[in-house]
Design brief:
The protein is rod-shaped and about 140 Å long. The chain is α+β, with helices and mostly antiparallel strands and 436 residues long.
Length: 436
């Protein structure tokens, strides 16, 4: 038994000695050491003694797991969780605010005047802005289709002639759209595209169209409100240039309605036989059609034989004289001339479309040269003229109203029939002005 015990003890001693010898002889490999046991060896662990961190991407000394901004060395935490680091956040404990531009202690999000340190509270509701908002929402200020439509209207007008562009857009609406009478109602407004399609609308609809067209060619425009209507307004115009463009378009409108040019030269040489007559003037039944006030005739007559000159109110008198119906022949005796061979003169303000008769009462043929100029005074000048062009100064620029209710003979800047207080609002900035 003692042998066995000795043997067993010996074996234990030998085994222990062998194990001790192996442990003492094994070398330590520091490249594989993971002191904090987080799975990252110390050589690669930025925090070898902190098992919750191992990387510091921005090098600010705070591990990425704890750093709310792991790639921003200037920020570590975001206490209020608004995405703005505490070092930058003026309100680090308020998730709804982070900036105070005017330094008044009220964050920009809550500050109704973020760049004015003297005020920050919400102003009371603005009744006018509330009234204007539905109209502003209907405007289309940047649209390729409207741009093309507007440029079709102003095609051929020099891009620098902004006044003529304004006039062309406005006159197109006056001539080609029907203005329907209706009380002011923001609930039934049409979009500009709907108005173009229908070719009609209330004054509000047409004004929205005008304002949109002007904006789409790069011009500042306003909506103008009165108690009963809404109008458009064009900004930054030269009134002299505007009237020149408007006047020419009004004259073209007169000529279109009248059917003839308002200035008609007549230059001719005739052989006028004995007892023959020449008439120069309007056709029988031709009237001034309500668009001409009067006619002026400048004349130069040269004849180698004495002539008798009559000024007659219509061509009917010429036919009466020609047919020997003296009872029905009338003429303006003030301008009658006998034995006329050479004569220069002016017959002013004939209120009917008559003319001049030259009658060769002699026995010999006459060679007659005439040089007549028939000039017609359009009626629109009594109402629509340069003195009626009204401008308003807004932010240092001359602006004119565009009233879509005026009809064929309206022109930009005429607002003699607009009554009551007028407020103009810029649809982009919402800034508005009371017009004088």
């Amino acid at each position: 038994m003692r042998k066995i015990v000795v043997v067993l003890i010996g074996l234990v001693i030998i085994t222990t000695g062998l194990m001790s010898g192996c442990t003492e002889k094994r070398p330590q490999d520091k490249s594989e050491t993971d002191t904090d046991g987080d799975g990252y060896i110390d050589a690669l662990d930025a925090f070898p003694y902190n098992n919750t961190e191992w990387e510091d991407s921005d090098g600010d000394g705070v591990g990425d797991n704890s750093d709310a901004f792991p790639y921003d060395a200037n920020e570590i935490r975001d206490t209020d969780g608004d995405g703005i680091g505490d070092n930058t956040d003026v309100f680090p404990l308020d998730p709804t605010e982070w900036q105070d531009s005017d330094g008044d202690g009220v964050g920009d999000n809550a500050d109704y005047f973020p760049y004015d340190e003297t005020r920050w509270e919400q102003p009371p509701p603005d009744a006018f802005l509330e009234q204007a908002e539905p109209y502003i929402e209907k405007l289309v200020l940047d649209d390729s289709a409207l741009q093309n439509y507007a440029h079709t209207i102003i095609n051929g007008i020099d891009s620098s002639a902004r006044e003529c562009q304004v006039n062309a857009l406005y006159r197109d609406v006056l001539k080609n759209y029907t203005c329907t009478a209706a009380p002011l109602d923001s609930g039934t407004l049409q979009t500009p595209q709907e108005t173009i399609q229908k070719k009609e609308g209330t004054c509000e609809d047409l004004s929205l169209l005008l304002c949109s067209l002007l904006s789409n060619i790069g011009m500042t425009s306003y909506l103008v409100f009165t108690d009963s209507h809404v109008y458009a307004m064009a900004s930054d115009v030269n009134t002299d240039s505007l009237w020149e463009c408007a006047e020419q378009s009004l004259i073209r409108q007169v000529e279109e309605t009248f059917g003839e040019p308002i200035s008609q030269p007549f230059l001719q040489t005739y052989t006028l036989g004995s007892l023959n007559m020449l008439y120069a003037g309007g056709d029988e039944g031709k009237t001034f059609a309500g668009v001409i006030d009067y006619m002026t005739i400048d004349y130069r007559i040269e004849s180698n034989q004495p002539l008798h000159m009559f000024v007659v109110p219509t061509q009917t008198e010429f036919f009466s004289l020609r047919d020997g119906d003296i009872a029905n022949f009338t003429h303006i005796t003030q301008w009658e001339e006998t034995n006329l061979t050479n004569k220069i003169g002016t017959i002013p303000q004939l209120f009917t479309f008559g003319g001049i008769i030259l009658f060769n009462e002699g026995a010999s043929a006459a060679t007659v040269s005439v040089d007549f100029l028939f000039s017609f005074q359009p009626s629109f000048y009594e109402t629509y003229n340069e003195n009626k062009l009204t401008t308003y100064e807004i932010v240092g620029k001359d602006s004119v109203l565009l009233d879509p209710t005026l009809g064929d003979y309206g022109f930009p800047g005429y607002d003699a029939e607009i009554v009551g207080e007028k407020k103009a609002i810029n649809p982009l900035t919402k800034q508005y002005f009371t017009l004088p």
